[in-house]
Design goal:
The protein contains twelve helices and no strands. Among the domains are: about 1-35; about 150-265, Up-down Bundle (Receptor-associated Protein); about 275-300. By secondary structure, the chain is mainly α.
Length: about 300
């Protein structure tokens, strides 16, 4: 087993080195020459990390060309990546490259550890299927986590918007200010509000910019907020009052959801009680009585 693991690691390192030599020969030569003939200005750690990330991303991009795909599929994947907060120009290529590299690594791991001896066809098919679907599951979990964070932090963002609007700022200025102030506490919402501010600064209508926010995030509470803001702009009502009412509504809705989960708890506890706790109680309570009755019947009827 140890020999197989060492062989797998050696093969993986050799394959990775060969890919780097094939696709990034010029960059490697430039790094070797810079190491032999150092310049006066040294690169920082951040620039080195950025270059390493670009190298790894380039290797993954070479693998993404293997999978055939249509423009419609690319559009759906790109929309999911945007909802996950991944807006880089190489995000789609990285995603498809991961769908090729992950099953390859799992297949090599199954071969190196000898697990395929149990059922070769089943093990290889299972490793390939899990590796191919793993990036989709990871992306789905990342989207769900980001949407939950935005849904949880939206009332605080609305409170900050109310403060900014009541202080005399317009909604556009309040949006930009809130995006700057919430970078650390609410990074997802800060990112989305920053995009809204950039779109408005570029000349897009306010309603269109907020509607794009609802489409990007795909969160129901944000859609409701956008609808209220568009209606308030159309009918000329107070933006501050609208935001305050929506913030109070969200907090009330959160309390109601918690109360609903607490009410469902008794029903959900029924199945563990019936399957695990009641049999143990029956065994402890009725076990001695059953043993006594068995001895009594044995003495009564004899052998």
């Amino acid at each position: 087993m140890t020999f197989a693991i060492i062989s797998f690691l050696v093969a993986f390192i050799l394959i990775g080195s060969a890919l780097l030599l094939i696709f990034y020969r010029d960059n490697i030569q430039e790094r070797i020459s810079s190491a032999l003939y150092p310049r006066a200005n040294k690169k920082s750690i951040s620039s080195t990390i950025e270059e390493t990330r670009h190298v790894i991303g380039g290797v993954v991009e070479q693998f993404e060309k293997i999978l055939p795909r249509s423009q419609a599929e690319i559009g759906v994947v790109q929309q999911r990546l945007v909802r996950a907060g991944m807006r880089g120009e190489n995000s789609v290529k990285m995603f498809y490259g991961a769908k090729v590299i992950t099953p390859t690594v799992l297949l090599l791991l199954a071969w190196a550890t000898g697990a395929y001896h149990l059922a070769p066809l089943f093990i290889f098919a299972l490793a390939g299927g899990i590796g191919f679907l793993a990036p989709d599951f990871w992306l789905g979990r990342k989207i769900a986590k980001r949407q939950a964070e935005m849904k949880k932090g939206l009332p605080d963002v609305l409170d900050l918007l109310v403060i900014c609007v009541e202080a005399g700022l317009s909604l556009d200025q309040a949006t930009q200010r809130s995006a700057q102030e919430l970078v650390k506490s609410q990074p997802a919402l800060s990112d989305e509000l920053g995009i809204v501010a950039l779109e408005q600064r570029a000349g897009r209508a306010r309603s269109d910019a907020w509607k794009h926010l609802a489409d990007r995030t795909d969160v129901d509470v944000i859609r409701n907020l956008v609808s209220m803001l568009v209606q308030a702009e159309q009918f000329g009502t107070s933006i501050g009052k609208t935001l305050r009412v929506h913030s109070d509504t969200l907090r009330t809705k959160r309390v109601q959801e918690i109360e609903e989960k607490a009410a469902k708890l008794s029903v959900k506890l029924l199945f563990p009680l019936v399957l695990f706790i009641f049999p143990s109680l029956f065994l402890v309570v009725l076990g001695p009585a059953v043993l006594v009755m068995a001895d009594s019947f044995k003495q009564f009827f004899g052998h």
